[in-house]
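Give me C-alpha cells for this 137-residue protein.
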Amino acid sequence: MTVTRTGVPFRAYAARPCTLVVCRGCCCGDPRKHPGVDHQGQLDRLEAAAAGSGGRLAVRTTDCLGPCEYANVVVVQPSGAGRRKGGRATWVGWAADDHCTDDILAWAAAGGPGEAEPPATLALQFVRPPNASRARR
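Here you go.
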C-alpha cells in the first residue's frame, strides 16, 4: 500500500466523497444578519442529501471562512475521483435560497468538481476564496 506524505494511504483519498463545507461563522447562518433565510432548513436539506447518498456526499460545517460579503458561503470540494480529474474546491457565494441549494445538491449528485459541469445559474455565484493569490497551484 502506498502512503502519502501525511501518512494517509492513497486508497483513503480515492474513496473521498464530494464534500460540502458550509460556513456558519460570523455572518453566514446568522438570522440576525440575514433574516428570512431558513439557515437550519438549508443545513438539514444538505445533511439529508448526504445521509441518502450512500457515501458519495458529505457535509460539514465550519466557522468563518472569510469572504463575509458573499454570505452565505458553501465550498464544494471534489471527490477523490474528481480531484484526480482536475477538480478543485469551488466557493459558492450568496448560497442562501432554495434554488441555490437545489443547484449545489444537483451538482454534487452528478459528481461535483472534476466530474460534472455545475448548473449555469450556480456558476454565476462562484467567488474567489480569500488569499486566492497565495493558493497552491
